[in-house]
Amino acid sequence: MKLITEATAEKLRGGFYTPEIIAEFILRWGINGNSNSDILEPSCGDGIFLKQILKNNLYYNSITAVELNEVEAEKADSIQLKNKQIINADFHSYCNNTLQRFDLVVGNPPYIRYQFFDKLQQAEAGDLFVRAGLSYSKLTNAWVSFVVGSSLLLKDKGGKIGFVLPAEILQVSFAKQLRNFIAHFYNKINIISFEKLVFPNIQQEVVLLLCEKNNTSEHKIEHIELLNADALKSLDVARLRSPKKQIDFKSNKWTFYFLDQEEINFLEQVSKLKKINTLEKYAHVEVGITTGSNDFFTVPLTTIEEYDLHEYARPMVGRSVQVNSVIFTYEDWEKNKFSKAKAHLLVFPNKKILRDHNGASQYIALGERKEIHKGYKTGIREDWFVVPSLKISDALFIRRNNLYPRLIINQAKAFTTDTMHRVFIRPGTDLNALTASYYNSLSLAFTEVCGRSHGGGVLELMPNEAEKILIPYKKENGDLLPLIDRYIRNKSDIHEILRITDGIILKERFGFSDQEIRLAQNIWKKLSSRRLNRGK
């Protein structure tokens, strides 16, 4: 995976190349005994796939390889293969102009953000999406356009693509239309994931996406998880010929397909059968306050006292470790205040009102010496030190989580930064009941399905994803809140809480059978365990 985060020449070239064993497996699957394949590698780098064709004496008809970097293209061109063409060009431009079509496209496309494309690349990528009937946005990564473009270059009668891709293809919002495109374009989809990271140095989880179109009416998908890349040596490609699970065209994410068909069916049907709504019906979720510099605007008590900033200091909670409860009380906040925690948000007025306060002026001058006023968010403000969107929410939802995400009542009326989401209760919803209703195996299962996992086992949910969590809400669930809060304050195992809440909320009040509860529990355990294993 060629991870690009900064616009240096080295990083724009990419430095995380495909392991030989993965390249060999993708080719073995793709060629599968066919000696007449026309093969394309759209970002060949120094030619790892070409080397594997040579090393394993694989048969083919022709090979075309595209590489933007001239030095890498020269390396690939030095590999001695017959009927080979190396094209030193941008793939997007090549894709839009070539008349060639292929039986097999393989590769490890670059992971480059839109803003690192030059103007011509952006225009070519946009044209490519138009050809595919898709919309192109500034959130789109290069690997997305490589998958789309490669698909368009397959022969009409059929063909295959085999790519090494970031696992976020299964879940991130900007890849939603790509998932939909793939689901409709291909008839057979296989996803291979790994328990251990293939590229541990960048904490980037990857999958192998293996797709085949055969112009039939079926659309099937299958997921296989292996311990590591070495396990590909013993994986029989015949196992990939007949994926079993039916593609769900309504599903926003492909995390579903880590589950068994029975579990998938359960998740698809439970909302309708049990008349359970999503969090969106009961609350609106939005990001916390974007200060532009949390280090400057969130401060401990010592800073407040040093600069005499008491009149500008507001209660604030910014980290999950500062909340060991389901109800964040004023007393909880005071404990943070008298520790070394950054428990205050600085809320300054405009320059005219502030000018006579010496301590605040000194602190703002300190920020300017650190050039905080030149930041992207601070630089666009009339007064850079005046933070906008200062709303206090009814509840908090932690953005990035380890064991499980928490929904927390904001009884302390504390502000929060963008490390947490703000939850605003809709009219007619009981806050205590909603919070208690969240703590059950079904809702926690949906946090895993709706969110996305990162390297290190972190689960992240954005506001629109949190709003999609199913909540078995009933007003009487509020009577469970003191118990749930007590257990979490005492650092009890979450499973102890779920044994109680599943029995009362799911079984007694929503009529779930023991088998349905076990399904919800197993789905949550399977998805969360899979994610957490990446942190080990």
What's this entry about, in short?
By secondary structure, this protein is an alpha/beta fold. The chain has a 9-stranded mixed beta sheet, with helices on both faces.
> How far is the first residue's CA from the last residue's CA?
21 Å
Radius of gyration from the alpha-carbon trace, in angstroms: 26 Å
Overall average residue pLDDT: 92
Shape: globular
Q: Going across the biggest sheet, name each strand in turn.
A: 4-3-2-5-7-9-8-10-11
What fraction strand?
15-25%
Major beta sheet summary: 9 strands, mixed
Q: Specify the helix fraction band.
A: 25-40%
Low-confidence stretches: 1-15
The assigned structural class equals: alpha/beta
- Number of β-strand runs: 23
What do these coordinates show?
With 536 residues, the chain is α/β, with parallel strands linked by helices. 37% of the residues lie in helices and 17% in strands. It is built from 21 helices and 23 strands. Strands 4-3-2-5-7-9-8-10-11 form a nine-stranded mixed sheet, sandwiched between helices. Strands 13-20-17-19 form a four-stranded antiparallel sheet. It has a three-stranded antiparallel sheet with strand order 14-16-15. Strand 2, helix 3 (48-55) and strand 3 (62-66) form a beta-alpha-beta unit. The longest helix is centred in the C-terminal third of the chain and has 20 residues, at 514-533. It is globular, with a radius of gyration of 26 Å.
Which keywords apply here?
single chain, 536 residues, alpha/beta, 9-stranded mixed sheet, 4-stranded antiparallel sheet, 21 helices, 23 strands, 17% strand, disordered N terminus
